[in-house]
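A protein record pairs a chain with a discrete description of its three-dimensional fold. The following entry can be read in just this way.
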Amino acid sequence: MIPAAHAPPSPLYARFSRRFRGILVDWMIAMAVIFGGLSVAIAVGNDNFSRALGFGAMLGLLLYEPVLVSATGGTLGHSFNNLRVVDQQSGGNVSFLKACARVVIKGLLGWFSFVVLAATRRNQAIHDLLTRSTVQIRDAAKARPGQYITERVELSDPGLPSRLRRAAIIGVYLLLLLVVFEAVTILLVMAGITSQRCIESNNCSAGERMVSLNAGVALVILMPAVITLGWKGKLLGARRA
């Protein structure tokens, strides 16, 4: 048995706010590569060079995250924000294939991958769960309390309904949420606030785009709230005993 004084420190799992900052850094790097490449291509004015440069930039952006995550534990965005992607099984860096899978899943799900964060014990997004990885604080000495959580042991409380029951109730609530969202959309069209043209072909005025954006943001906020409350046993139909 390891003495308490020499026990390994508990992992510190990154909050969404910290991960979001890392994403912003990586996004800015990607934009710099794209616009820098375009500027160079325009300045050179050679089609063959431009195609080669474009292919190289695209390949670099595609491999940027998988290579850095598997080799160093994180992208530049992760490193600048004191974060590290950790393989749940080995405790080290994830493999290159797992890093590729994370990128693909994130690309397919977008921000919706993060809706389950608060309903997981280790603050994991869907792409973390599917690849059995976590995002942790790299250096605990440099972290502040608001940047991380420890494992949510309350989610293993025996008083909680079964996982299947909680998942089923969450599914029902999410379905109702989508029905309400669709009903609100219809009411907005009937009231003349937005048009059928905007809904069907995305041909929207500035005002209509603002309404659609606000509705989308509300949906993205409500979905993780439903998932979190349901998984913690706080929704009617699947409450903690």
